[in-house]
Design a protein that fits this description.
Pfam families: Abhydro_lipase (PF04083), Abhydrolase_1 (PF00561). This is Gastric triacylglycerol lipase. InterPro entries: AB_hydrolase_1, AB_hydrolase_fold, AB_hydrolase_lipase. Keywords: Lipid degradation, Lipid metabolism, Signal. With 471 residues, this protein is an alpha/beta fold. It has a single domain, classed as 3-Layer(aba) Sandwich (Rossmann fold). It contains 18 helices and eleven strands. The strands form two sheets. Strands 1, 2, 3, 4, 5, 6, 7, 10 and 11 form a nine-stranded mixed beta sheet that branches. It has a two-stranded antiparallel ribbon with strand order 8-9. A hairpin with a 4-residue loop joins strand 1 and strand 2. The longest helix is centred in the middle third of the chain and has 20 residues.
């Protein structure tokens, strides 16, 4: 479910613009307390920016070049090579997948590298795996005996701040420097997944999907493509939030993928979301409406692209306002957010999805289930042959390489929901790391954007990858 919470702040601000308009609030029949909140939020926005949405300038200075780079440009700016691959899914969606190529890997080792697929969360993109490191460059692989031992990168003290050459915060670069073939996947609906072999993204039918289709078509399509290009049967997989939804969904509906995905690293694992304490749960009330709307939902290519630099530019001394908008939906851990880079983060998120996908999560909150999309009784009978949608049966998962990275301060992957998911697994996870034991305030987005991800999270993932490297 990924970045849904950290991006809801940006998307919500656009929604508030509409909610504060009398014609919209009356049409939707919204309660007065919600329209009052919208009015207050718009007043705050005008105080921050010094103008209204209609008269503020769209281009505001920021010195962070990553604000205007795409994923491949970010990769190349750090000295790596970037490849872009188009994966065509079985149902015709074209997904751009970025590959990080470490130019310092010795030629005789290049074909031996194990592929690792990284899957972002909701509203996000492959940028999550590379944007959080600016102090990193390629390293030779394998290292010469005269080089410092790679073991020195891994310690259990977790002292110091990440994003160094030894401890880059971005997992994509971390693994690329340590002998892995890194593939950054993108899901249908984000800015790298808005093409189709037969349809335009202007066609409403293009947006008739939820995470069901991402599970059924996107992830298998990317895996099969990587297998074909690399000649490797097994792939490592790292999912964050919705990326874990896709992993659990695929392993439960097609258990044979347990022989392909090794290991499955689940950051902020999501299956059930009923106990989320994020304000996003209040959007669930509109699920019956969203479920019947086939259209795009929230991308940084429109209004949000302008809101981020306006609120978070280096010229604005009120960066904490932007940070708090971000924390509002994901949990509070200001210590882990690099405020100097918020503008860059928000210019890459939200990256887009479908309204139907958002509605699917609303259904999950209301129903307390991890199930396929509910099309209504008639629609369910036509699609599934039953009155209600079938569950994703976690008991069918037979993978013995699942690693769970959890945090008790995670507003989205709430501890009660994670506990229920673990209880329904019939296999014992290979590894469980509760980050709260070392960072009590660690939250949902810190797994990818945390200032200490390079020292706390990435070394643990690396050790897990090494355990399955030769399988």
């Amino acid at each position: 479910m990924g970045m849904m919470l950290r991006t809801m702040a940006s998307i919500g601000l656009i929604g508030l613009c509409l909610l504060s308009m009398p014609e919209w609030s009356e049409t939707l029949g919204l309660p007065k307390r919600m329209t009052d909140f919208a009015d207050d939020a718009m007043t705050l926005f005008e105080e921050i920016t010094g103008g209204t949405l209609e008269d503020v300038a769209p281009h505001v200075y920021t010195s962070d070049p990553d604000t205007h780079r795409n994923v491949s440009e970010i990769i190349r700016s750090r000295g790596y090579l970037a490849e872009e691959h188009d994966v065509v899914t079985q149902d015709g969606y074209i997904l751009t997948v970025q590959r990080i190529v470490n130019p310092l890997v010795k030629p005789e080792y290049r074909n031996k590298l194990k592929p690792v697929i990284m899957q972002h969360g909701l509203f996000s993109s492959a940028a999550d795996w590379v944007i959080n490191s600016v102090q990193v460059k390629p390293e030779p692989y394998p290292k010469n005996s005269s080089d410092s031992s790679r073991d020195s990168y891994i310690d259990d003290t977790f002292d110091g701040v990440g994003d160094s050459q030894e401890h880059p915060n971005s997992l994509g670069f971390y693994l690329a420097n340590r002998g892995y073939d890194v593939w950054l996947a993108n899901s249908r609906g984000n800015i790298y997944g808005q093409r189709h072999v037969h349809m335009s993204s202007w066609n409403p039918k293009f947006w008739s999907f939820s995470f069901d289709e991402q599970i059924e078509f996107d992830l298998p399509g990317v895996i099969e493509y990587v297998q074909k290009v690399t000649g490797k049967h097994k792939v490592g997989y790292v999912g964050h939030s919705q990326g874990t939804v896709m992993g659990f969904g695929l392993l439960s509906s097609k258990p044979e993928y347990a022989d392909v995905i090794e290991p499955f690293v689940a950051l902020a694992p999501v299956a059930y979301v009923h106990h989320t304490i994020s304000p996003v749960k209040y959007f669930a009330v509109y699920t019956p409406v969203f479920s019947h709307i086939d259209m795009w939902f929230g991308t940084s290519n429109v209004a949000v692209k302008y809101l981020a630099p306006l609120v978070c530019s280096e010229k604005n001394i009120k960066k904490k306002i932007c940070a708090n908008l971000l924390f509002l939906t994901t949990g509070f851990d200001e210590d882990e957010l690099d405020e100097d880079r918020v503008a860059a983060y928000l210019n890459h998120t939200p990256s887009g999805t479908s309204v139907k996908n958002v509605a699917h999560y609303g259904q999950e909150i209301i129903s307390r289930r991890f199930a396929h999309f509910d099309h209504g009784i008639l629609g369910n009978i036509m699609k599934y042959g039953t009155h209600s949608p079938p569950d994703y049966d976690l008991s069918k998962i037979r993978s013995k390489s699942i690693a769970l990275f959890i945090a008790e301060n995670d507003w989205l992957a709430a501890p009660k929901d994670v506990a229920r998911m673990r209880a329904e697994l019939t296999v014992e996870p290979y590894y469980v790391f509760n980050v709260t034991t070392v960072k009590p305030k660690w939250n949902h987005i810190d797994f990818v954007y945390g200032k200490n991800a390079g020292t706390i999270i990435n070394p643990e993932i690396y050790k897990i990858m090494e355990a399955f490297k030769n399988d």
